[in-house]
Amino acid sequence: MARWRLTNDDWGLESNCFVCEARNSHGLQLELWADDETRQVDTTFTLGSAFSGAPTLVHGGLSLAILDEVQAWTVIAHERTWAVTIETASTFEQPVWVDHVFTARAEVVSRAGDKVETRGWIEDANGGLCVRSTATFLAIGEATAASLIGDAVPEEHRSFLREPPSADEQDQG
């Protein structure tokens, strides 16, 4: 399976994510795709004026939210672990305009233990770089979460800590 769609349901996560959850009627509902050959995650999006900051520009915070999302999902999909952002830095190179097509992409740069370094970028329809980002994620699974927060996770949220399915399990279902 070279390219596959990422959904919260497939990974055991009950989510109302503003960026990626299709059931969140107030969210962006972006489709995220993993590619096993490039080891990247991407999403293509067009945001209208309801998402503007400065007139005719997508709000910078939304660009950063989209980058954080593709970077987090590249850790989930390609490192096969849940992770949370612990540090991020971004640079805006060119505007992200409302009502124009853009693609956000991310890839894992390195992993050392439970720390995963990623890079992400948003490019315009011609491949021009608009925003770039680096981020460090802390990989969390049940064992890591237990050592960090013990029993502090309420029972109704423990499904978040479930390990994602293996590649074999995904191919079967």
Please give a handful of descriptors for the protein shown.
Thiol Ester Dehydrase, Chain A, 7-stranded antiparallel beta sheet, 20% helix, 173 residues
Tell me the layout of helices and strands.
Layout: E1 3-6, E2 32-35, E3 40-45, H1 60-79, E4 82-92, E5 102-112, E6 115-124, E7 129-140, H2 142-149, H3 167-172
Antiparallel strand pairs: 1-2, 2-3, 3-5, 4-7, 5-6, 6-7
Could you describe the 3D structure shown?
With 173 residues, this protein is an alpha+beta fold. It has one domain: Roll (Thiol Ester Dehydrase, Chain A). Helices cover 20% and strands 34% of the residues. The protein is built from three helices and seven strands. The chain has helices spanning 60-79, 142-149, 167-172; strands spanning 3-6, 32-35, 40-45, 82-92, 102-112, 115-124, 129-140. Strands 1-2-3-5-6-7-4 form a seven-stranded antiparallel β-sheet. The longest helix has 20 residues, at 60-79.
| Number of beta-strand segments | 7
Helix content: 10-25%
Strand content: 25-35%
Shape: globular
CATH architecture: Roll
Please report the distance between the alpha carbons of the first and last residues: 12 Å
Mean pLDDT: 84
How large, in whole angstroms, is the Cα Rg?
A: 16 Å
Enumerate the strands of the largest sheet in spatial order, edge to edge or round the barrel.
Answer: 1-2-3-5-6-7-4
Instruction: Outline the biggest β-sheet.
Output: 7 strands, antiparallel
Stretches where pLDDT is under 50 for at least 5 consecutive residues are none
